[in-house]
C-alpha cells in the first residue's frame, strides 16, 4: 500500500521484481484499473511504459487499485493495493468526533439525514463522492444556513457505496454511505 498527500503530486513506480514470468525472456505488459475492474480515479494516471502511477489527488480517502501483468501468451496475474490520501501537515485540521454528527439512515434508499447537535460556526462544506472519487454532490453552507439538520436526497444517486465528507474551517467528518 502507498500513501500520498491531498493536493500534492503523487508518483509511484512499480518495482521491477513485483511480477515474474516462469518463461525466461517473456516480456510482461502492465495495465491498471480501480479494484473490481473500475476505472482509475480521475486524478490518477498510469504509464504502462514506465510502470508509474502519477497525479494530484484532490480528496482525502483510500483508493483500491488493481495492477495486472500479462505475458506474450496472454497469461495474466493481478495484485491489488490501496493508495491512502491523507491531509498534509500544513494546516491544523482535526477530525470531528463521531458523536458530534449523526448520519441516518445508513444504509439508505432515499433521503439521508445529517444531524449536527451543535450549531456549525463559520462555513461548512458537504461533499459526496462515489468510490472512484468523482464528486456527486457539493453544498456550501454559512452558519446562518445550517442549524441542526441537513437532508440530502439520494434517490437519484443509484445503488452503491459513497463517501460523505463534511468540512468546516478546522474540522473534517467522513462517513461511508451505502445506497440500496
Low-pLDDT sequence parts: 89-99
Q: Please, what is the average pLDDT?
A: 81
Going by helix content, strand content and strand pairing, the class is mainly beta
Helical region count?
0
Cα separation of the termini: 30 Å
Compact summary:
The protein has 180 residues and is mainly β. The protein has strands at 2-5, 10-13, 29-34, 44-47, 52-55, 61-70, 76-86, 94-95, 102-104, 111-115, 123-130, 135-142, 149-153, 160-167, 171-179. The chain is built from no helices and 15 strands.
Using brief descriptors, characterize the structure shown.
15 strands; elongated; 180 residues; five-stranded mixed β-sheet; mainly beta
Write structural notes for this entry.
The protein has 180 residues and is an all-beta fold. Helix content is 0%, strand content 51%. The protein has strands at 2-5, 10-13, 29-34, 44-47, 52-55, 61-70, 76-86, 94-95, 102-104, 111-115, 123-130, 135-142, 149-153, 160-167, 171-179. A hairpin with a 4-residue loop joins β4 and β5. Residues 89-99 have low confidence and may be disordered.
Strand and helix map with partners:
Blueprint: E1 2-5, E2 10-13, E3 29-34, E4 44-47, E5 52-55, E6 61-70, E7 76-86, E8 94-95, E9 102-104, E10 111-115, E11 123-130, E12 135-142, E13 149-153, E14 160-167, E15 171-179
Parallel strand pairs: 1-7, 8-15
Antiparallel strand pairs: 2-5, 3-6, 4-5, 6-7, 9-10, 10-13, 11-12, 11-14, 14-15
Amino acid at each position: 500500500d502507498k500513501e500520498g498527500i491531498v493536493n500534492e503530486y503523487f508518483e509511484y513506480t512499480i518495482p521491477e521484481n513485483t511480477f515474474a514470468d516462469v518463461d525466461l525472456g517473456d516480456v510482461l505488459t502492465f495495465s491498471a484499473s480501480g479494484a473490481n475492474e473500475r476505472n482509475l480515479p480521475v486524478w490518477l494516471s498510469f504509464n504502462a511504459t514506465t510502470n508509474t502511477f502519477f497525479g494530484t489527488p484532490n480528496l482525502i480517502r483510500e483508493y483500491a487499485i488493481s495492477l495486472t501483468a500479462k505475458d506474450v501468451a496472454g497469461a495474466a496475474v493481478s495484485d491489488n493495493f490501496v493508495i491512502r490520501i491523507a491531509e498534509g501537515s500544513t494546516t491544523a485540521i482535526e477530525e470531528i468526533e463521531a458523536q458530534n454528527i449523526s448520519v441516518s439512515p445508513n444504509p439508505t434508499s432515499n433521503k439521508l439525514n445529517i444531524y449536527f447537535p451543535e450549531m456549525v460556526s463559520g462555513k461548512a462544506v458537504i461533499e459526496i463522492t462515489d468510490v472512484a472519487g468523482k464528486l456527486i454532490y457539493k453544498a456550501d453552507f454559512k452558519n446562518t444556513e445550517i442549524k441542526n439538520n441537513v437532508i440530502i436526497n439520494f434517490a437519484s444517486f443509484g445503488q452503491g457505496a459513497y463517501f460523505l465528507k463534511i468540512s468546516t474551517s478546522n474540522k473534517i467528518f467522513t462517513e461511508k454511505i451505502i445506497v440500496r
